[in-house]
Design brief:
By secondary structure, the chain is α/β, with parallel strands linked by helices. The chain has 3 domains: 2-67; 78-87 and 161-270, HAD superfamily/HAD-like (Rossmann fold, 3-Layer(aba) Sandwich); 91-157. 56% of the residues lie in helices and 11% in strands. The protein has 13 helices and 7 strands.
């Protein structure tokens, strides 16, 4: 608020100076006596020079503000992103279909692996990959060899989204602070980080496997807030799952359920994120 007041004061003073510079030639035009002509020419030059200099100063200010990451004017200062199905694609179905298993086997493996509670718990990172693999196999022991096969290259369930680096860079350049809050398994994170160009624009990151906490449990949201000293009322959380958005709202954040880039961008604009 104080910043806005000073901006208004500066604008008013600037208008007064410009009006004075423009009006001075008219005052001196009707003058007489020695030096009147010189004063008129000087005031006419000022009337031309002052607006030009004001424009140059304004342009320099805009460029410097942009380069320094000037704070946005709205309430939202911090944008918190989920990763899967927001900044990257998480597509286990296409990956599993690529093996051309018979329909019965496809359904059994999907249920034992990707649709199991173990798959979600794997993001907490409390056990080894081998222990989680053993649980997957226990869900469909007749397909043990194929379950082992798909888990060898499981990073292929993650695919980059072309818009993610551009989107996050533009938001960063506008002065917003960007963060990650994502459920992610340890091995998959290590193997897919190189494709995540958008990470370079982040001010902080909280991944479930590193914290041993997962969304939508409130503890992981509090970890983000306390670690980076965030004011929840100035944060908006973008996630593809409604339950995770609900949990974010409970700790005081705004939240947007991500469906598409266009939809999320429109929702952000409604919150004043331009």
């Amino acid at each position: 608020m104080k910043k806005d007041i000073w901006k208004r004061i500066a604008a008013v003073l600037g208008i007064i100076v410009l009006l004075a510079a423009v009006c001075l030639p008219m005052v001196f035009a009707f003058g007489s006596g020695e030096g009147a002509a010189g004063r008129f020419r000087a005031s006419l030059g000022a009337a031309i020079l002052v607006p030009v200099m004001a424009y140059v100063i304004w342009m320099v200010y805009r460029i410097l503000s942009r380069s320094r990451g000037a704070e946005p004017d709205g309430t939202i200062r911090n944008i918190v992103f989920d990763v899967g199905n927001v900044l990257v694609s998480y597509d286990w179905e296409s990956y599993l279909k690529s093996f051309d298993f018979p329909p019965e086997e496809y359904q059994a493996i999907a249920k034992a692996v990707f649709l199991s509670d173990v798959w979600n718990e794997r993001d907490r990172g409390l056990r080894t990959d081998e222990e989680y693999l053993a649980d997957f196999i226990a869900g469909a022991p007749e397909y043990e060899s194929d379950i082992r096969l798909i888990m060898q290259d499981i990073r292929k369930v993650i695919l980059p989204r072309d818009y993610a680096p551009v989107w996050t860079r533009l938001l960063k350049e506008k002065g917003y602070h960007l963060y990650i809050l994502s459920n992610y398994s340890e091995t998959t994170l290590e193997e897919t980080k190189p494709m995540m160009e958008f990470l370079q624009y982040m001010d902080g990151m909280v991944f479930s496997c590193e914290e041993k906490q997962i969304k939508p449990e409130p503890e992981i949201y509090q970890t983000l807030i306390s670690r980076y000293q965030l004011d929840p009322s100035r944060c908006v959380f973008v996630d593809d799952r409604e339950e995770n958005c609900v949990a974010a709202r409970r700790v005081g954040m705004q939240a947007i359920r991500f469906e598409s880039l266009r939809q999320a961008d429109a929702e952000l604009k409604k919150l004043g994120v331009e």
